[in-house]
Design goal:
Blueprint (H helix, E strand, L loop, with lengths): L3 E2 L10 E3 L2 E3 L4 E5 L6 E6 L3 H19 L3 H17 L1 H12 L3 H9 L10 E4 L3 E9 L2 E5 L7 H12 L3 E5 L6 H10 L8 E3 L4 H9 L5 E5 L2 H11 L5 E5 L4 E5 L5 H13 L9 E7 L3 H14 L18 H16 L3 E4 L15 E4 L6 H4 L6 E7 L2 H9 L3 E2 L1 E5 L3 H8 L6 E4 L11 E2 L1 E2 L2 E2 L1 E2 L1 H5 L3 E9 L4
Protein backbone atom coordinates (compact mmCIF):
# COMPACT_ATOMS: atom_id res chain seq x y z
CA UNK A 1 0.00 0.00 0.00
CA UNK A 2 1.22 3.52 -0.67
CA UNK A 3 2.53 5.56 2.27
CA UNK A 4 0.98 8.74 3.57
CA UNK A 5 2.49 11.58 5.59
CA UNK A 6 1.97 11.50 9.36
CA UNK A 7 -0.44 14.23 10.38
CA UNK A 8 -3.23 14.17 12.97
CA UNK A 9 -2.83 11.30 15.43
CA UNK A 10 -5.80 8.94 15.50
CA UNK A 11 -5.77 6.46 18.36
CA UNK A 12 -7.94 3.83 16.69
CA UNK A 13 -5.88 3.44 13.51
CA UNK A 14 -2.43 1.88 13.46
CA UNK A 15 0.45 1.88 11.03
CA UNK A 16 4.05 0.89 10.65
CA UNK A 17 6.17 4.02 10.64
CA UNK A 18 8.86 4.00 7.96
CA UNK A 19 11.02 6.99 7.12
CA UNK A 20 8.60 9.42 8.73
CA UNK A 21 5.55 8.02 6.97
CA UNK A 22 2.57 5.87 7.90
CA UNK A 23 2.51 2.60 6.04
CA UNK A 24 -0.22 -0.01 5.98
CA UNK A 25 -0.12 -3.56 4.65
CA UNK A 26 -2.32 -6.02 2.83
CA UNK A 27 -1.53 -8.46 5.65
CA UNK A 28 -2.95 -7.60 9.04
CA UNK A 29 -3.26 -9.07 12.49
CA UNK A 30 -4.78 -7.88 15.74
CA UNK A 31 -4.33 -8.07 19.44
CA UNK A 32 -6.88 -9.46 21.88
CA UNK A 33 -8.20 -7.67 24.95
CA UNK A 34 -7.18 -10.15 27.67
CA UNK A 35 -9.92 -8.92 30.00
CA UNK A 36 -12.75 -9.67 27.57
CA UNK A 37 -11.34 -11.99 24.92
CA UNK A 38 -12.48 -9.54 22.24
CA UNK A 39 -10.40 -8.76 19.18
CA UNK A 40 -8.81 -5.32 19.08
CA UNK A 41 -7.90 -3.08 16.14
CA UNK A 42 -6.19 -4.32 12.99
CA UNK A 43 -2.48 -3.64 12.69
CA UNK A 44 -0.33 -4.11 9.59
CA UNK A 45 2.23 -6.89 9.30
CA UNK A 46 5.47 -5.50 7.93
CA UNK A 47 7.01 -7.19 4.90
CA UNK A 48 10.65 -7.81 4.05
CA UNK A 49 10.48 -4.70 1.87
CA UNK A 50 9.08 -2.64 4.74
CA UNK A 51 12.00 -3.68 6.96
CA UNK A 52 14.56 -3.01 4.22
CA UNK A 53 13.01 0.40 3.57
CA UNK A 54 13.17 1.19 7.28
CA UNK A 55 16.83 0.21 7.46
CA UNK A 56 17.60 2.36 4.42
CA UNK A 57 15.73 5.24 6.04
CA UNK A 58 17.78 4.89 9.23
CA UNK A 59 21.03 4.63 7.29
CA UNK A 60 20.17 7.83 5.46
CA UNK A 61 19.18 9.65 8.66
CA UNK A 62 22.10 8.42 10.76
CA UNK A 63 24.97 10.75 9.71
CA UNK A 64 23.03 13.94 10.41
CA UNK A 65 21.56 12.57 13.63
CA UNK A 66 24.97 11.34 14.81
CA UNK A 67 26.36 14.84 14.25
CA UNK A 68 23.47 16.56 16.04
CA UNK A 69 24.86 18.00 19.31
CA UNK A 70 24.06 16.02 22.44
CA UNK A 71 22.24 18.95 24.03
CA UNK A 72 19.98 19.23 20.98
CA UNK A 73 19.19 15.52 21.16
CA UNK A 74 18.32 15.94 24.86
CA UNK A 75 16.11 18.90 24.03
CA UNK A 76 14.18 16.89 21.43
CA UNK A 77 13.81 13.95 23.80
CA UNK A 78 12.26 16.22 26.42
CA UNK A 79 9.88 17.64 23.81
CA UNK A 80 8.96 14.08 22.86
CA UNK A 81 8.28 13.23 26.51
CA UNK A 82 6.04 16.30 26.78
CA UNK A 83 4.18 15.30 23.61
CA UNK A 84 3.55 11.80 24.96
CA UNK A 85 2.33 13.21 28.27
CA UNK A 86 -0.06 15.42 26.32
CA UNK A 87 -1.63 12.20 25.02
CA UNK A 88 -1.43 10.32 28.33
CA UNK A 89 -5.17 9.69 28.49
CA UNK A 90 -5.28 8.09 25.04
CA UNK A 91 -2.12 6.04 25.67
CA UNK A 92 -3.47 4.85 29.01
CA UNK A 93 -6.70 3.66 27.38
CA UNK A 94 -4.72 1.79 24.72
CA UNK A 95 -2.48 0.20 27.34
CA UNK A 96 -5.51 -0.96 29.35
CA UNK A 97 -7.05 -2.46 26.22
CA UNK A 98 -3.99 -4.36 25.02
CA UNK A 99 -2.64 -5.54 28.40
CA UNK A 100 -5.69 -5.59 30.69
CA UNK A 101 -3.80 -3.58 33.31
CA UNK A 102 -5.82 -1.61 35.85
CA UNK A 103 -5.99 2.07 34.91
CA UNK A 104 -3.85 3.14 37.86
CA UNK A 105 -0.92 0.98 36.81
CA UNK A 106 -1.34 1.72 33.11
CA UNK A 107 -1.19 5.39 34.05
CA UNK A 108 2.03 4.81 35.99
CA UNK A 109 3.61 3.18 32.94
CA UNK A 110 2.56 6.07 30.69
CA UNK A 111 3.78 8.56 33.30
CA UNK A 112 7.24 6.98 33.34
CA UNK A 113 8.23 8.08 29.84
CA UNK A 114 10.19 11.22 30.76
CA UNK A 115 13.89 11.30 31.63
CA UNK A 116 17.32 12.50 30.48
CA UNK A 117 20.81 11.02 30.65
CA UNK A 118 24.46 12.00 30.23
CA UNK A 119 27.04 10.29 28.04
CA UNK A 120 30.33 9.68 29.92
CA UNK A 121 33.81 10.56 28.68
CA UNK A 122 37.22 9.73 30.14
CA UNK A 123 40.69 11.24 29.88
CA UNK A 124 44.13 10.06 30.96
CA UNK A 125 47.38 11.99 30.81
CA UNK A 126 51.02 11.35 31.59
CA UNK A 127 54.28 12.99 30.52
CA UNK A 128 54.21 11.28 27.12
CA UNK A 129 50.62 11.42 25.96
CA UNK A 130 46.98 12.30 26.57
CA UNK A 131 44.29 9.72 25.90
CA UNK A 132 40.69 10.69 25.16
CA UNK A 133 38.12 7.91 25.55
CA UNK A 134 34.92 8.96 23.84
CA UNK A 135 31.85 7.03 22.79
CA UNK A 136 30.39 7.02 19.31
CA UNK A 137 27.00 5.67 18.18
CA UNK A 138 26.73 2.26 16.54
CA UNK A 139 24.39 3.24 13.69
CA UNK A 140 21.07 1.50 13.05
CA UNK A 141 19.67 -0.35 16.08
CA UNK A 142 16.74 -2.72 16.42
CA UNK A 143 14.54 -2.95 19.51
CA UNK A 144 12.43 -6.09 20.04
CA UNK A 145 9.77 -5.39 22.66
CA UNK A 146 7.85 -7.79 24.95
CA UNK A 147 4.16 -7.73 25.77
CA UNK A 148 4.19 -7.18 29.54
CA UNK A 149 5.29 -3.50 29.51
CA UNK A 150 4.91 -2.59 25.84
CA UNK A 151 5.21 1.17 26.21
CA UNK A 152 7.84 1.78 28.87
CA UNK A 153 10.13 -0.91 27.48
CA UNK A 154 9.83 0.62 24.00
CA UNK A 155 10.80 4.04 25.31
CA UNK A 156 13.52 2.41 27.42
CA UNK A 157 15.25 1.38 24.18
CA UNK A 158 14.33 4.37 22.02
CA UNK A 159 15.53 7.07 24.44
CA UNK A 160 19.11 5.83 25.02
CA UNK A 161 19.51 4.83 21.38
CA UNK A 162 18.67 8.23 19.97
CA UNK A 163 20.29 10.15 22.83
CA UNK A 164 23.61 8.50 21.96
CA UNK A 165 23.16 9.40 18.28
CA UNK A 166 21.79 6.15 16.86
CA UNK A 167 18.70 5.52 14.79
CA UNK A 168 16.33 2.79 15.98
CA UNK A 169 13.67 0.54 14.48
CA UNK A 170 11.17 -0.77 17.03
CA UNK A 171 9.35 -4.07 16.65
CA UNK A 172 6.44 -4.27 19.11
CA UNK A 173 5.12 -7.60 20.34
CA UNK A 174 2.28 -8.90 18.14
CA UNK A 175 0.31 -9.42 21.36
CA UNK A 176 0.55 -5.71 22.30
CA UNK A 177 1.34 -3.65 19.20
CA UNK A 178 -0.81 -0.61 19.82
CA UNK A 179 0.97 1.72 22.25
CA UNK A 180 4.39 1.07 20.68
CA UNK A 181 3.19 1.89 17.17
CA UNK A 182 1.39 4.97 18.39
CA UNK A 183 4.40 6.15 20.40
CA UNK A 184 6.60 5.95 17.31
CA UNK A 185 3.93 7.75 15.28
CA UNK A 186 4.01 10.56 17.83
CA UNK A 187 7.80 10.66 17.58
CA UNK A 188 7.54 11.73 13.93
CA UNK A 189 6.35 15.14 15.13
CA UNK A 190 9.69 15.67 16.92
CA UNK A 191 12.50 13.75 15.22
CA UNK A 192 13.78 13.75 11.63
CA UNK A 193 12.48 10.97 9.34
CA UNK A 194 14.30 7.69 9.80
CA UNK A 195 15.54 8.36 13.35
CA UNK A 196 12.69 6.46 15.06
CA UNK A 197 10.72 3.88 13.09
CA UNK A 198 8.41 0.95 13.82
CA UNK A 199 7.71 -2.30 12.02
CA UNK A 200 5.05 -4.58 13.44
CA UNK A 201 4.82 -8.26 12.76
CA UNK A 202 5.45 -11.78 13.96
CA UNK A 203 8.47 -13.83 15.02
CA UNK A 204 9.68 -14.09 11.43
CA UNK A 205 10.10 -10.32 11.29
CA UNK A 206 12.10 -10.42 14.52
CA UNK A 207 14.38 -13.01 12.95
CA UNK A 208 14.92 -10.73 9.95
CA UNK A 209 15.96 -7.91 12.27
CA UNK A 210 18.59 -10.10 13.91
CA UNK A 211 20.15 -11.18 10.60
CA UNK A 212 19.93 -7.92 8.66
CA UNK A 213 23.50 -6.94 7.69
CA UNK A 214 22.91 -3.21 8.10
CA UNK A 215 21.55 -3.35 11.65
CA UNK A 216 24.41 -2.84 14.11
CA UNK A 217 22.70 -3.79 17.38
CA UNK A 218 19.71 -5.65 18.73
CA UNK A 219 18.20 -4.81 22.10
CA UNK A 220 15.87 -7.62 23.10
CA UNK A 221 13.66 -8.10 26.14
CA UNK A 222 11.92 -11.45 26.45
CA UNK A 223 12.37 -15.10 27.31
CA UNK A 224 15.68 -16.89 27.81
CA UNK A 225 14.91 -19.35 25.01
CA UNK A 226 14.22 -16.60 22.48
CA UNK A 227 17.15 -14.55 23.75
CA UNK A 228 19.50 -17.41 22.90
CA UNK A 229 18.08 -17.49 19.38
CA UNK A 230 18.56 -13.72 19.05
CA UNK A 231 22.17 -14.02 20.16
CA UNK A 232 22.85 -16.93 17.83
CA UNK A 233 21.35 -15.14 14.83
CA UNK A 234 23.07 -11.84 15.64
CA UNK A 235 26.44 -13.58 15.83
CA UNK A 236 26.36 -14.13 12.07
CA UNK A 237 27.01 -10.42 11.52
CA UNK A 238 28.71 -9.81 14.91
CA UNK A 239 25.89 -7.52 15.99
CA UNK A 240 26.08 -6.01 19.41
CA UNK A 241 23.31 -7.43 21.59
CA UNK A 242 21.71 -6.46 24.84
CA UNK A 243 19.52 -9.24 26.21
CA UNK A 244 17.22 -8.69 29.18
CA UNK A 245 15.74 -12.11 29.80
CA UNK A 246 13.79 -14.07 32.39
CA UNK A 247 14.43 -14.32 36.09
CA UNK A 248 13.55 -16.45 39.10
CA UNK A 249 14.02 -13.78 41.74
CA UNK A 250 14.47 -14.74 45.37
CA UNK A 251 13.22 -12.64 48.26
CA UNK A 252 14.88 -13.33 51.63
CA UNK A 253 12.99 -12.20 54.73
CA UNK A 254 15.19 -11.79 57.81
CA UNK A 255 13.74 -12.47 61.30
CA UNK A 256 13.78 -8.84 62.51
CA UNK A 257 11.22 -7.43 60.02
CA UNK A 258 7.99 -5.67 60.93
CA UNK A 259 5.70 -8.49 59.80
CA UNK A 260 2.52 -6.50 59.27
CA UNK A 261 4.34 -3.82 57.32
CA UNK A 262 6.59 -6.03 55.18
CA UNK A 263 4.31 -8.97 54.30
CA UNK A 264 2.01 -6.93 51.99
CA UNK A 265 5.06 -5.44 50.27
CA UNK A 266 6.48 -8.90 49.60
CA UNK A 267 3.12 -9.91 48.13
CA UNK A 268 3.19 -6.88 45.83
CA UNK A 269 6.63 -7.92 44.63
CA UNK A 270 5.25 -11.30 43.63
CA UNK A 271 1.91 -10.26 42.12
CA UNK A 272 2.53 -6.82 40.56
CA UNK A 273 1.22 -6.76 36.98
CA UNK A 274 -0.34 -10.18 37.72
CA UNK A 275 3.15 -11.63 38.14
CA UNK A 276 4.01 -10.82 34.51
CA UNK A 277 7.28 -9.10 35.34
CA UNK A 278 10.68 -10.53 34.51
CA UNK A 279 12.02 -9.09 37.75
CA UNK A 280 9.06 -10.00 39.98
CA UNK A 281 9.59 -12.02 43.14
CA UNK A 282 9.32 -15.69 42.19
CA UNK A 283 10.57 -17.42 45.39
CA UNK A 284 10.05 -16.22 48.97
CA UNK A 285 12.29 -17.44 51.80
CA UNK A 286 11.01 -16.52 55.30
CA UNK A 287 12.94 -17.11 58.54
CA UNK A 288 11.36 -20.04 60.36
CA UNK A 289 10.92 -18.07 63.62
CA UNK A 290 8.36 -15.83 61.88
CA UNK A 291 7.30 -18.11 59.02
CA UNK A 292 3.78 -18.93 60.26
CA UNK A 293 2.86 -15.36 61.22
CA UNK A 294 4.44 -13.80 58.12
CA UNK A 295 2.73 -16.25 55.79
CA UNK A 296 -0.61 -15.54 57.46
CA UNK A 297 -0.18 -11.80 56.86
CA UNK A 298 0.67 -12.52 53.24
CA UNK A 299 -2.47 -14.62 52.92
CA UNK A 300 -4.60 -11.90 54.54
CA UNK A 301 -3.36 -9.29 52.09
CA UNK A 302 -3.60 -11.62 49.09
CA UNK A 303 -7.25 -12.37 49.85
CA UNK A 304 -7.98 -8.63 49.81
CA UNK A 305 -6.57 -8.15 46.29
CA UNK A 306 -9.19 -7.26 43.69
CA UNK A 307 -8.75 -8.83 40.25
CA UNK A 308 -10.75 -7.71 37.25
CA UNK A 309 -11.30 -5.72 34.09
CA UNK A 310 -9.72 -2.23 33.95
CA UNK A 311 -13.21 -0.80 33.53
CA UNK A 312 -14.62 -2.52 36.62
CA UNK A 313 -13.21 -0.12 39.19
CA UNK A 314 -10.16 0.12 41.40
CA UNK A 315 -8.66 -3.31 40.79
CA UNK A 316 -5.11 -4.10 41.82
CA UNK A 317 -4.57 -6.83 39.23
CA UNK A 318 -5.78 -7.51 35.70
CA UNK A 319 -5.73 -10.66 33.59
CA UNK A 320 -2.87 -12.65 32.10
CA UNK A 321 -2.10 -10.85 28.84
CA UNK A 322 -2.55 -13.68 26.33
CA UNK A 323 -3.96 -17.19 26.03
CA UNK A 324 -0.54 -18.80 25.51
CA UNK A 325 0.77 -17.46 28.82
CA UNK A 326 -2.58 -18.18 30.51
CA UNK A 327 -2.27 -21.87 29.64
CA UNK A 328 1.34 -21.93 30.83
CA UNK A 329 0.43 -20.45 34.21
CA UNK A 330 -2.45 -22.89 34.58
CA UNK A 331 0.13 -25.63 34.15
CA UNK A 332 1.83 -24.55 37.38
CA UNK A 333 -1.52 -24.75 39.18
CA UNK A 334 -2.18 -28.20 37.77
CA UNK A 335 1.28 -29.46 38.72
CA UNK A 336 1.06 -28.06 42.26
CA UNK A 337 -2.38 -29.56 42.75
CA UNK A 338 -1.35 -32.95 41.34
CA UNK A 339 1.68 -33.07 43.65
CA UNK A 340 -0.47 -32.29 46.68
CA UNK A 341 1.18 -28.99 47.60
CA UNK A 342 -0.58 -26.80 50.14
CA UNK A 343 -2.42 -23.79 48.71
CA UNK A 344 -2.14 -21.15 51.43
CA UNK A 345 -4.10 -18.63 49.38
CA UNK A 346 -5.86 -18.83 46.04
CA UNK A 347 -7.93 -21.52 44.39
CA UNK A 348 -6.35 -24.56 42.74
CA UNK A 349 -9.15 -24.59 40.16
CA UNK A 350 -9.29 -21.65 37.78
CA UNK A 351 -12.78 -20.46 37.01
CA UNK A 352 -13.65 -20.08 33.38
CA UNK A 353 -14.43 -16.56 32.14
CA UNK A 354 -14.24 -14.50 28.99
CA UNK A 355 -10.91 -13.06 30.13
CA UNK A 356 -7.65 -14.65 31.20
CA UNK A 357 -8.11 -14.03 34.91
CA UNK A 358 -6.26 -15.90 37.67
CA UNK A 359 -6.58 -15.24 41.40
CA UNK A 360 -3.20 -14.64 43.07
CA UNK A 361 -2.02 -17.81 44.79
CA UNK A 362 0.58 -18.74 47.41
CA UNK A 363 2.01 -22.27 47.62
CA UNK A 364 3.13 -23.10 51.17
CA UNK A 365 6.54 -24.80 51.39
CA UNK A 366 6.72 -26.97 48.27
CA UNK A 367 9.94 -29.02 47.90
CA UNK A 368 13.03 -27.31 46.50
CA UNK A 369 12.99 -29.46 43.36
CA UNK A 370 9.35 -28.64 42.58
CA UNK A 371 8.46 -26.98 39.31
CA UNK A 372 7.05 -23.91 41.07
CA UNK A 373 10.45 -23.34 42.74
CA UNK A 374 12.70 -24.27 39.83
CA UNK A 375 10.89 -22.50 36.96
CA UNK A 376 9.56 -19.02 36.30
CA UNK A 377 5.73 -19.09 36.05
CA UNK A 378 5.35 -15.46 34.91
CA UNK A 379 1.96 -15.30 36.53
CA UNK A 380 0.31 -14.68 39.94
CA UNK A 381 1.47 -17.83 41.74
CA UNK A 382 4.41 -17.84 44.17
CA UNK A 383 5.97 -20.36 46.59
CA UNK A 384 7.18 -19.69 50.13
CA UNK A 385 9.74 -21.70 52.11
CA UNK A 386 11.12 -21.36 55.65
CA UNK A 387 14.84 -21.05 56.42
CA UNK A 388 17.00 -21.08 59.55
CA UNK A 389 20.63 -20.91 58.39
CA UNK A 390 21.71 -17.75 56.56
CA UNK A 391 24.50 -19.43 54.58
CA UNK A 392 22.13 -22.15 53.47
CA UNK A 393 19.37 -19.76 52.33
CA UNK A 394 21.83 -17.62 50.36
CA UNK A 395 22.97 -20.80 48.65
CA UNK A 396 19.35 -21.74 47.95
CA UNK A 397 18.61 -18.29 46.54
CA UNK A 398 21.62 -18.50 44.21
CA UNK A 399 20.87 -22.07 43.12
CA UNK A 400 19.39 -21.11 39.75
CA UNK A 401 20.58 -20.52 36.19
CA UNK A 402 19.08 -17.03 36.32
CA UNK A 403 20.10 -13.86 38.12
CA UNK A 404 17.97 -10.87 37.22
CA UNK A 405 16.78 -9.46 40.55
CA UNK A 406 16.48 -10.27 44.25
CA UNK A 407 15.23 -8.72 47.48
CA UNK A 408 16.37 -8.72 51.11
CA UNK A 409 14.07 -7.55 53.89
CA UNK A 410 15.39 -6.65 57.35
CA UNK A 411 15.28 -3.92 60.02
CA UNK A 412 19.07 -4.07 60.35
CA UNK A 413 19.91 -2.43 57.01
CA UNK A 414 23.65 -3.07 57.22
CA UNK A 415 23.08 -6.78 57.77
CA UNK A 416 20.55 -6.85 54.93
CA UNK A 417 23.06 -5.14 52.62
CA UNK A 418 25.70 -7.75 53.46
CA UNK A 419 23.24 -10.43 52.35
CA UNK A 420 22.34 -8.41 49.26
CA UNK A 421 25.96 -8.23 48.12
CA UNK A 422 26.16 -12.02 48.13
CA UNK A 423 23.14 -12.58 45.92
CA UNK A 424 23.98 -13.36 42.29
CA UNK A 425 21.65 -10.95 40.53
CA UNK A 426 21.95 -7.79 38.49
CA UNK A 427 19.63 -5.70 40.70
CA UNK A 428 19.15 -6.36 44.42
CA UNK A 429 16.60 -4.40 46.43
CA UNK A 430 16.86 -3.90 50.19
CA UNK A 431 13.52 -3.34 51.95
CA UNK A 432 11.62 -2.94 48.71
CA UNK A 433 10.16 -5.20 46.09
CA UNK A 434 11.76 -5.04 42.67
CA UNK A 435 11.48 -1.53 41.24
CA UNK A 436 14.03 -0.94 38.45
CA UNK A 437 14.64 2.72 37.68
CA UNK A 438 15.96 4.45 34.53
CA UNK A 439 18.60 6.13 36.71
CA UNK A 440 20.53 2.85 37.20
CA UNK A 441 21.73 0.20 34.77
CA UNK A 442 19.42 -2.81 34.54
CA UNK A 443 20.60 -6.22 33.39
CA UNK A 444 20.99 -9.80 34.51
CA UNK A 445 23.62 -12.27 35.61
CA UNK A 446 23.90 -15.84 34.31
CA UNK A 447 21.14 -16.69 31.77
CA UNK A 448 19.12 -13.63 32.71
CA UNK A 449 20.89 -11.65 30.05
CA UNK A 450 23.89 -10.08 28.39
CA UNK A 451 24.80 -6.46 29.09
CA UNK A 452 22.40 -3.88 30.44
CA UNK A 453 20.47 -0.71 29.68
CA UNK A 454 19.34 2.42 31.55
CA UNK A 455 21.43 4.72 33.66
CA UNK A 456 24.52 6.48 32.39
CA UNK A 457 26.39 3.19 32.22
CA UNK A 458 23.61 1.64 30.15
CA UNK A 459 24.08 4.28 27.45
CA UNK A 460 27.37 2.63 26.56
CA UNK A 461 25.44 -0.40 25.27
CA UNK A 462 24.51 1.79 22.30
CA UNK A 463 28.06 3.01 21.68
CA UNK A 464 31.46 1.98 20.45
CA UNK A 465 34.43 3.12 22.52
CA UNK A 466 36.51 5.53 20.43
CA UNK A 467 39.93 6.15 21.94
CA UNK A 468 42.22 8.90 20.64
CA UNK A 469 45.85 8.76 21.75
CA UNK A 470 47.61 12.13 21.39
CA UNK A 471 51.38 12.01 21.85
CA UNK A 472 53.09 15.17 22.96
CA UNK A 473 55.71 16.99 20.99
CA UNK A 474 59.07 16.03 22.54
CA UNK A 475 60.94 18.94 21.01
Amino acid sequence: MSPSKVSTIEFDKFYNIINGQQRGSNEIHHGVNPATGQELWDVPIASDKDLNDAVEGSKKAFPAWRDTPLEKRKELLLKFADLCQGHSEELTKLLCAETGKPKKFAGIEVGGLAGSLKIPTETFEDDEKKIYTEYTPLGVCGGIIPWNFPLILSVGKVAPAILTGNCIIVKPSPFTPYTGLKMVELAQEIFPPGVVQAVGGNNELGALLTTHPDIAKISFTGSIATGKKVMEASAKTLKRVTLELGGNDASIVLPDVDIKKVAPEVVMGAFQNSGQVCVATKRIYIHDSIYKDFLQEMVNFTKSIKVGNPDDGDNLLGPIQNSMQYEKVKGFFADSKAKGYKFAAGEPDIASSKGFFIQPTIIDNPPSDSRIIAEEPFGPIVPTQPWSDLEEVISRANDTNTGLGACVWGSDVEKAMKVARRLEAGSVFVNSWEKPTPQAIFGGHKESGIGGEWGTTGLLAFCNAHVIHVYKDKN
